[in-house]
Amino acid sequence: MAHGSGGKATSELISSIFARYFDNPVLAKMEDAAVVPGAARIAMTTDSFVVTPLFFAGGDIGRLAVCGTVNDLAMSGATPMYLTCGFILEEGVEIAVLERIVFSMAETAREAGVLIVAGDTKVIEGKGGLYINTAGVGFLPEGGFAVSSAFCEEGDVILLSGTLGDHHAAILSARMGITNTIMSDCAPLHGMVSALLQNNVRVKAMRDVTRGGLATILHEFAAASNKCLRLEEDQIPVTDQVRGLCGILGLDPLYMGNEGKMVAVVAGEDAALALCCLQKSAYGKAAAIIGEVIRGEEGTLLLHTQTGGVRVLTELYGEGLPRIC
């Protein structure tokens, strides 16, 4: 508890862990607020991460926190630039565990090209838990570029950057003690977004596929744009292991959480170029065209099934266990 008192123990924790790994000229000033170069238009976001377990196949809560914030910024078309992080530490969390998480955050921030410029630490009574809150700032390009779920139009094409359900399945497997080789997809997506924009792909809407899953997000797109979206079930990528786990546990990959996948709606004429951009990106090799915006009942999301039927997809109802962020 002394580490949360604001005294010598707090200073030692900051200098030995946070300043050591997050070191950069802005943070090194250790002021109450970071002063950074700006832009005419910025994107801002905030998120909190409460995942259990803290470490899982393919990542940990630290990598998750950076990727989640970076991806939210990237989905607005912004270039992620700066992050802040607040740590809520329960009494009893091991310093070695904290250091491992902070190191992971620092490595992921470097991969994503962002600086962690400010932070805060609080210690509370508890049983050794650890929670992270982040805020992020990104710069938007000149020229008024904008994406919105309301911009979807008939003839547009829907792309997914990779396989569904990997993160959800990895977390659930860890919690239930299920042995498999499923890895979380936790990854920063700014590179593939940048590739789309640099190649002048006419992106109408995009979103990282996290809580609620693909179906919930695309249902929101349909409602916001007042259009009908149709997915092709046999074109949606899911690994055999995740599909098998879903079969055992009664899960649907369309509603499972991910932390390294994005969905994009682009002009139909740009679909092939967009797919090439995604597949050439570090985390987009399994990208696929999975559907289109069609003439039909407004505000609906349809799934053309492998058996030739049509299923109406709604948003997720109830609790999408496990909670992943």
What structural keywords apply?
Phosphoribosyl-aminoimidazole Synthetase, Chain A, domain 2, 325 residues, 13 strands, globular, single chain, 60s Ribosomal Protein L30, Chain: A, 8 helices, 7-stranded mixed beta sheet, 2 domains, alpha+beta, 4-stranded mixed beta sheet
What does this protein structure show overall?
Helix 2 packs parallel to helix 3 (95-112). The chain is globular. It folds into 2 domains: 2-139, 2-Layer Sandwich (60s Ribosomal Protein L30, Chain: A), CATH 3.30.1330; 149-313, PurM-like C-terminal domain (Phosphoribosyl-aminoimidazole Synthetase, Chain A, domain 2, Alpha-Beta Complex), CATH 3.90.650. The chain has helices spanning 8-22, 61-74, 95-112, 166-176, 190-198, 213-225, 240-249, 271-279, and strands at 42-49, 55-56, 59-60, 79-90, 115-124, 130-139, 157-160, 203-208, 228-232, 262-266, 288-294, 300-304, 310-313. It is built from 8 helices and 13 strands. The chain has a 7-stranded mixed sheet with strand order 8-10-7-11-9-12-13, sandwiched between helices. It is α+β, with helices and mostly antiparallel strands. The mean pLDDT is 93.
